[in-house]
Design goal:
By secondary structure, this protein is an alpha/beta fold. It is built from 11 helices and 12 strands. The protein is 40% helix and 19% strand. Bound molecules: 5'-O-[(R)-(carboxyoxy)(hydroxy)phosphoryl]adenosine and zinc ion.
Amino acid sequence: MEKRRSTGETTYRILGIESSCDETAAAVVENGRRILSNVVASQAALHAQYGGVFPEAASRQHLLTFVPVIEQALRDAHVELAEVDAIAVTRGPGLPGSLVVGINVAKGLAMVSGKPLIGVHHLEAHLHSVLLSDAQVQGSEILYPAIGLIVSGGHTELVLISEPLRYQSLGATLDDAAGEAFDKVARLLKLPYPGGPSIQMVSAKGNPEAFSFPRAWLEGTWNFSFSGLKTAVLREVKRLERYGSGMPVEDLAASFQQAVVDVLVGKTLAAAEQFRAKCILIVGGVAANRALREAISLRAPTPVLIPPLYLCTDNAAMIAAAGYFRYRAGQSDGLDMDVLPNWPLAKSLQQF
Ligand code: KG4
Ligand code: ZN
């Protein structure tokens, strides 16, 4: 419930709910920034046996896990459902069956509590993850215009944020998302799922210049492509197998990682320059990558905002944060809200 602090500042608490992929998550966030609780039940171990996310298993696992996850989020935050101001839930994009579970849970809570329901765009939520603070981390302020690079298992998108809540999509991947490329190449190299952390780990012992893998610059566009890179790694693996003198997994992983990082950093910096960005946001699961974090921070002329590792991957604190700003802008959704599995974040710049 809306409260006034001794400082006179009004506080709003939003319960966030996330289930777009393979994390079942709930969180309570105050004023879009202060994390009161953040509970994430990862399904990574369940999907590891399939080498990737198995959608039906994901939906069923969300069904099993949601109630205890939400109860824990409320308990950790020391709030009752009656004390939150709104319920924010991921509406899309994501796996339809997984989104349905989260939305139905959120609807049930909104119905019994009478609180407003806010459908949140998952990528907008990732962008808000840089604002979040808790006892360990201090959130950052976004300076506008900003360039946002969203790099996750399902998305690779470069976004111009001209002012709060206003996004223009500059470009996106034409094929595999960056995280998907990490996951697929990890599988090729027989490394465990999820591939990003596995590749990062073995890359630490590898030479990033051992193999010169292709970089798809796609000049003249802000788009990305990673399928050619993945195929180049596959071709190299097959060649080495024929050769039969052992697989230099560390060097292959490090060289692949370097190729991805070069393109992500190069295009993000070029966009920041062209659109005179005052800051750069790097968000999503792949933003956890150490080589990417180091390269962009080293080369960027503006502040670079990257969330701490546990806020890079899917969580509900970022859903609550984005939901807060939508709530304060007077937006909410009806109890007949449907999922939007392919919801675009913004119109492409060409359409403006
Ligand atoms: O944002 P996220 O948790 O889920 C989606 O919305 O997709 O991102 C998951 C993706 C996976 O593809 C995973 O391999 C990748 O993020 N990832 C990483 C790292 N940690 C997670 N990729 C590269 N380096 C990492 N350290
Ligand atoms: Zn995500």
